[in-house]
Amino acid sequence: MSKITIPIGPQHPALKEPASFKITLNGEEIYSMDMRLGYNHRGIEKACEERSFIQGLYLIERICGICSHSHSTAYIQALEELAGLQVPKRGLYIRTLIAELERIHSHLLWLGVAAHEVGFDTLLMYTWRDRELVMDHLAEIGGNRVNYAVNTMGGVRRDLTPDEIAHILKDVDTLEERTKYYAQVATEETTLVARLSKIGYLSQTDAEFLGAVGPTARACGVDRDVRRDDPYAAYGDVQFKVCVDHHGDVYGRVLVRVGELMESYSIIRQLMKNMPDGPIAVKSPRRIAAGEVYSRYEAPRGEDCHYVKSNGTDKPERVKIRAPTLANWRAVRKMIEGNYLADAPIIIAAIDPCFSCTDRAIELVRPAGAETLTWGALRQHGIDWHRKQGLDFAELNKKLNTQLGRVK
Amino acid sequence: MALFNIIVFPGILFLVIAGLWFEFVDRRMYARMQHRQGPPWFQPLADFIKLLAKETIIPEDANRFLFTAMPVMALTATISAFFYIPLWSPRALFSFPGDAVVVMYLLTIPTLTFFLAGWYSTSLYSMIGAVRSLTQLFAYEIPLFMAVLAPAMLANTWSLAGIAAYYTAHPLMALLNVPAFCVAMVTLLGKLEKVPFDIPEAETEIVAGAFTEYSGRHLALFRLAVDIEVVVAGSLIVAMFLPFGLALPWYLGIIVYLLKITLVVALIAILRTIMARLRIEQMVNFCWKILAPVALAQLLLNLVVKGFLKP
Amino acid sequence: MKYPGRMLGEVLAHLGAKPNTIKYPYEPAVVQAGLRGKIKFFAEKCIGCKICEKDCPSDAITVNKLGDKRFECIFDLDKCIYCAQCVDSCPKKALTVTNEFELAQLDRHKLRFIFHAPDAPPAPAAQPEPPAAKTA
Q1: How far apart are CA B302 and CA B306, in angstroms?
Q2: Chain B residues whose beta carbon lies within 8 Å of the beta carbon of residue C23
Q3: Helix (H) / strand (E) containing C114
Q4: For residue A121, which residues of chain B lie inside 8 Å, CB to CB?
Q5: How confident is the model at residue A365 (pLDDT cuts 50, 70, 90)?
Q6: Which of A37, A55, A98, A228 is least buried, going by the fewest C-beta atoms within 10 A?
Q7: Is residue B46 over pLDDT 90?
């Protein structure tokens, strides 16, 4: 059978966000993959430069719908470092609590999505049902299911009541039991294991070489976790184990994420037990001293990096965001080769991709003959190009206006 | 009277209503088992009417004739198969020696129409779906044939009416066919393209497989054909493996028949709830390495039993 | 032990159970008390410092001075991202957050919400407000 190229995306039921994967097939087997990203570029970095630090915080939070707290914490840590703010202990604990709740809901979501990609919708419905427990707590503590907006410069915005603490502890127990059950299902349901194991293999060497991060890397035996290696917030005060697995396939990624869920429950219990009293935030300045900071954060999907440069005004001079998915894309290309077409969606989903978070304008190594256009030149180029194709928008506009009776 | 039987009861109208109703039963059970609400009872009908009202798009490169003819073909093949199956009495509407084989072949036609429809849609997803449909057909068809014909062999007739008559006379013999029933149920999932064998229309991989380019009333007809196929294939399984209560008066017989179909539909719903979709090569392996030997063993068992009973 | 149909017991147990989902528009949704919904403005507390305007990430709030110590607040629900930063920023607590969230409208103009200024000059506040503890 000759090679055929099948497009997955930009619009495709397997993808929750637009991205284009051109998969070249040799029969049912994948020969190679080419990907095109950037369909959802939103210009967030540039927009941040035109907003004050506190306004930018809410924009940064909207980079990702799942790890909103991750981005906002990475950003706020950078700002606090620049401003030299000492966040009170209780504030840090609440921040860590939200981070772990977010990890729980993100991993439960992923487990459901992974099951859906292999046609096991029942597991999807059950994990997402249980995920609602966490979402309700996040809505109660932060005020929103998705953009919790808990962080503010110098601490957190909302305090926890003893009632809420008791309630969260109770639900954590329920969730732990449910997670144990899902772990059993994921490792014992024959059809599911048959679809997950031995596909999307990535060796430890490749994972390190291609710069994979988060559970994707840890499932290949790369023992790396920012929470332990470079503790931020309250992670220095809690005991937890970094889940590492040596399967290297999608099955290993399931095991790592389930293991991290169990660790998250334990972290939440420790945080609740040792929650110190006191203020939750300190007063912060509007202007931040000039300087630059690089902040790291272990998001559910892997290491999230924010770079913030301040010039002493109330607006940042430059914000650069490296979402964890960006680091994993190269690994996907390696993982997908030699697998069946049927496995392509689950292999792509196995890194828990967040397309929109990743889409940044990056200037690659400039190919020969390339030129940089200004906005005006680009616009003129577009007009000229369409005119050459026989489409004159000025004419069309005039026609439309005449038809609508809006002639000047 | 024959015309009434064909068009109204137990013919086309009954089949359409039953098809839509059992689609609802299937979807509702699927939802409830997933702890969801599920659709209201009129949802399949509402979907059907809505699809009829939608714009029908035929791809430019597609073969217009085959593209429009295939849904009708699928519908006719499934409906005509229904008339040879005894439902609540040992008699079928039409019957002749060897109709069991004809019904099996008529039930293969929808799969072939899926293939042709997908192939002539000339879209990549459709083509891959079509090829997968056919690959899957080669995997499940042999075990399904062997499983369904095992009871026929025991009854020593190729006529469905004859089989029904035989098992009404010897109800305990039906118990012998339990392994074949299990094989038939599993292969039926392949025939109806349901999880774990919904590989030809795997949503997350190839959109809707052979149906990707279909829209409007052609899609409505295809979906109706699939719904009716559930009822017809279910009736076939019921006639072959659950031949009980056929001697009852007709009003009780109909109730028993509907209960039996509900049981088959419920089994399909449960099986598709608790499993993940397999890959095509896993599916082929499973059918040939597990289902086919079991079906063969059943045939052997039935031959031996027949040998003992003969003298 | 590995076997197919591992979830059989679980799904059958839920077959007869009450669904976990609700028929939302027909049944009331469960709303958390802490949900950040529509903003409420207390005109008599406002001093017109416009910090809320300055801090709003989406320019959704405008405070206009109508007269001596009389302020009205124009609030664009279609621009608002419900972050409630204005509530935190307000030094006089003239803004609070409610958990009202069913705010969709067919007519865009209805999304503009005007909190009118009190007609009469405001009565002196009964108690002096404590200064905001959180970030301004």
Answers
A1: 6
A2: 37
A3: strand C112-115
A4: 34, 195
A5: low
A6: A228
A7: yes
Nearest CA in chain C to A178: C10
Class of domain A44-358: mainly alpha
Q: What is the mean pLDDT of chain B?
A: 85
pLDDT of residue A362: 56
Pick from B258, B232, B88, B227: nearest CA to B148: B232
Q: In angstroms, what separates the C-alpha of C2 from chain B's closest C-alpha?
A: 13
Low-confidence ranges of chain C (pLDDT < 50): 122, 124-136
DSSP state of C110: G
Encode pLDDT of C103-132 as tens digits.
888 888 888 888 777 765 545 444 444 444
Rounded to a whole number, what is the distance in Å from the CA of C56 to chain A's nearest CA? 7
Which residues in chain B touch residue A192, judged by CB atoms under 8 angstroms apart?
276
Query: What local confidence, expressed as pLDDT, does residue A128 receive?
Result: 92
Q: Please give the angle made by the CA atoms of B292, B87 and B105, to the nearest 5 degrees.
A: 40
Q: Which amino acid is at C13?
A: A
Is C41 inside a domain boundary?
yes
Distance of CA A309 to the CA centre of its chain: 22
Domain that holds residue C59: 31-115
- In this structure, is residue C74 part of a structural domain? yes
Between helix A68-83 and helix A89-117 the angle, nearest 10°, is 150
Q: Structurally, how many domains does chain C consist of?
A: 1
The answer to whether position C24 is within a domain reads no
The answer as to whether C92 is a domain residue is yes
Alpha-carbon distance of C100 to B106, in angstroms, equals 59
Structural tokens at position C80: 């608002």
C-alpha of A253 from chain center: 16
Average pLDDT along chain A: 86
The secondary structure of residue A105, as a DSSP letter, is H
What is the C-alpha separation between B57 and B60, in angstroms, rounded?
A: 9
Instruction: Kindly determine whether residue C134 and residue A144, on different chains, have CB atoms separated by under 8 Å.
Output: no
Q: Does C13 touch chain B (CB under 8 A)?
A: no
pLDDT for A135 beyond 70: yes
3-state secondary structure of A403: helix
* Residue B79 CB partners (closer than 8 Å, separation 6+): B11, B12, B15, B228, B232
